[in-house]
Amino acid sequence: MQSAIAERILRRLEQAETREPDPHLQDDYRIAWITVLRASRGESSPHVSASYAVLGLHPDKVWPAIVARRKVLLGAEYQAFWESPPSLALPPRKPAVREQRGQQRSRMVGLARAA
After folding, report:
1. What pLDDT, in 10s, does the model give residues 4-25?
2. Distance between CA atoms of residues 3 and 11, nearest Å
3. Are 9 and 24 found together in one domain?
4. Confidence (pTM)
């Protein structure tokens, strides 16, 4: 039996899927919809069965399958397109900084008082 919250989530996901023009993102919404449905029914691994239902693959094998398909389609050009030299690669990501809300709020209050 589905809860009211699960039903609301399913409706939102269905709306998002019907409004999404990109078929790949539609698949993502469909996987999410099936996952929520099966989780609300108590299935132990709903994301795995949803991935099999939509894509026919285990979630851990989806990305390797995408890469393998790209390699087949692009052939020798795959490395030139996807595996660019380090000089053309994206810069390293900045490390995550944990924001301390209490300190930020006290600074804002202090600035407001000074003004």
Report:
1. 999 999 999 999 999 999 999 9
2. 13
3. yes
4. 0.66
